[in-house]
Amino acid sequence: MLSHSIYIFTAYIIDRIVGDPRALPHPVVLMGKCISLLEKVIRKFVVKEKALKLAGLLFPILIAGGTYGIVALLLYTISLVNHWLAVIAEIWLISTTVATKGLGDAGMEVYRHLKNNDLSKARQSLGMIVGRDTEELDEGEISRGAVETVAENIVDAIISPFCYALIGGAPLAMAYRAVNTLDSMIGYKNEKYQNLGWASARFDDLLNYVPARLTALFMLLACWVKRLDVRNAWAMIKRDAKRHPSPNSGIPEAATAGALAIQLGGTNFYNGVASHRAKMGEPNRLIESDDIIRTIEVMRTTSMICVLLFFTISLLVAYYIS
Predict the structure, then answer these.
(1) Domain range for residue 96?
(2) Which 3-state string (H, E, C) describes 81-139?
(3) CB 3.0 to 4.6 Å from 14: which of 95, 137, 144, 311, for a disulfide?
(4) Candidate from 39-53, 66-80, 83-97 with smallest mean pLDDT
């Protein structure tokens, strides 16, 4: 556990400094290709919808299970060559499962375009990180989209990977990332994926359940550090988090809405079709571009608190065990 917390701490520093360099291959890209290939194979041999639901179990079993096995075998093989080379490989792999820098950079790109009064580029940048239509959004709606995206991803792009890395190192963190990638690719409740993707979506909800509730604690501490409204953040978590269609994503969004005294949620359009999302928080003021900065600061502070707490707890456990 102590070694894993040291790996997490180091991986976090690497992610904050380097992020995900485009020149280096990212494991998630390979996961995505494997998921697409498996989908093609299943759809070729499985025709009936009821059978597709059963076949949907193959995705978390083969993709997540396979990812765990491959990473574990890779690290073991490297360790036979050199122990420290295996340590470096594990730290790097853990760093690829988190996106603190990438998330912050994406939000900052939208923010800079808004500050330059370039709504066209701001819409384009937002469109790179959200699924909703962005072509007609005004400044307030662009800001809302960026705030919601940064807040929502605190769980699955930061806290959850760290939780699973603490428990099982890079193999488990990568397996979690595989499940999360499955959910983002096929975990939709639409006609195409309601049967094939149900297992991936449920498994993702299950794996994020505990980390999402830890995120609530870390975010409240972060809000206190940043001198935001902690009481209102907690009140909105209790009142509004359950209104979100996801049992987990509503927690960081509701916390953000309460801390910043804004209202998130509302109507989004996907391929021209309106989707009404439950509103979280009170509209005490209009959302502004600076709220993107505030949300990024909360995200970064939350991630630091998580890493430091995991490291401290690991030290205490190691001390008392010894």
Answers:
(1) 2-321
(2) HCHHHHHHHHHHHHHHCCCHHHHHHHHHHHHHHHHCCCHHHHHHHHHCCCCCCCCCCCH
(3) 95
(4) 39-53
